[in-house]
Design brief:
By secondary structure, the chain is of the alpha+beta class. The chain has two domains: 256 residues, Bira Bifunctional Protein, Domain 2 (BirA Bifunctional Protein, domain 2, 2-Layer Sandwich), CATH 3.30.930.10; 90 residues, Anticodon-binding domain (Rossmann fold, 3-Layer(aba) Sandwich), CATH 3.40.50. Helices cover 37% and strands 20% of the residues. Helix 1 runs antiparallel to helix 5 and helix 5 packs parallel to helix 9. Bound molecules: histidyl-adenosine monophosphate (HAM). Histidyl-adenosine monophosphate (HAM) binds next to strand 6, strand 10, strand 11 and helix 12.
Amino acid sequence: MTSHSQGKRSSRKEPLLPPKGTRDLVGNEYLNYQGFAEKAAEIALYYGFKPVETPILEHEEVFTSGLSSATDIVGKEMYTLRTKGSDRLALRPEGTAPLVRAYLSEGMQALPQPVMAYYYGPYFRHDNPQRGRYREFRQFGLEVMGSPKSIYDALIVRLCVTILGEAGIKNPCVEVNSLGCKECREGYRRELSSYYRKHAKEVCAECRERLKSNPLRVLDCKNPKCAPIKESAPESIAYLCTECKKHFKEFMEYLDEMDVTYRINGSLVRGLDYYSRTVFEIISGDSAEEGAESGSALALGGGGRYDYLARALGSKKDVPAMGASLGVDRILLSPSYTPLHPRIIKKPEIFFIQLGFDAKLRSFQVTEILRKARIPIAHSLGKDSLGTQLGIAEKMDVPYCIILGQKEVIDGTVIVRTMANRSQDTVKLEKLPEYLKHLKR
Ligand code: HAM
């Protein structure tokens, strides 16, 4: 990660930096992201999720209808723009509303239900950048659209924990809660509002504001002044109707059976307001400890059920759905994160040396033969001398070199050199893949 102060350059001679809160992914850092995304996709595909990619730009109303403007990511943090044709567009701040928009506009209701989708890509929130909080960040998400069944709620949590485990995060803290359905949540909202109104003088100005615009969000307040009030506030699970209670209980039974350790957090409401019933958040074991000290544990991922979102986006009927997103940047920053290598990166065990102009001309043909045979090689096509190229091969510690010189070009052969004992074999070009596959590695 770049540590320079981003966003501005003081004089014209300095190079332009990426905008504040965004960064370039270069070299190993890029590969780490790719490795994570590939592993997460492999797990998602195994469980029947299919990839979906939605545009980075959406009509603003996908978010203003799906989430109210009282939600911070819409009201305060969304990047919006007006096009030359006067469309109001937004850089997507999250992936769930776009997925539901795509489910509806692509006619996915007509497919066998539920539709299980996964996605990976950049999201944008105009927040104050700090460690683990960026203006451009990457999420890997899973969504199950078209089923109210609690087993999907548990499967989503389980898969998030599994993916984190593959990335080295072994003991994540999973917090769960249920916000209830339309009916029982109303009763709870009334109780919570009336409780907070009684304590209006003791809480911060933001809580008083939230009490008017989005009462459940008072429970998201991190201000120490409000902590005692929050601690004694009524909890949503005490107000669940029989059906929601059953759903929550089943969800936890599945989690037990799936070996997921979790704890109920009665004040977990999440920052987005499309949720109903199940909500959950995952904090890494390391950052839970760090955060407990500093009061700043950052979630590695979170999600929940959003049974009413489709209707808010224009569907004639509700589409019960459940999903989650993992914050990939935060996962890669976790102390226990262990890099996952992308599939395309195989350490080459053969270095290709070419000598002279004719060999350079032929080198592409040789490389293509080996690429098609899936034999990874390294080379340095800009170099000319044998000594320099052998030197690079030695530094790379490859066991074999292929040498192509003037004579070999004429004969349609190459020399295969074993680096350890300097022995050499001349091999016909068409036999080369077979020959290399049988070499000792
Ligand atoms: P979210 O909790 O807003 O949920 O974001 C999910 C994860 O994205 C967070 O837990 C965090 O790891 C990461 N994240 C969020 N903001 C930032 C940021 N500024 N910088 C770095 N990482 C960040 C959602 O976005 C929902 N769409 C999740 C969901 C899917 N619910 C149902 N389905």
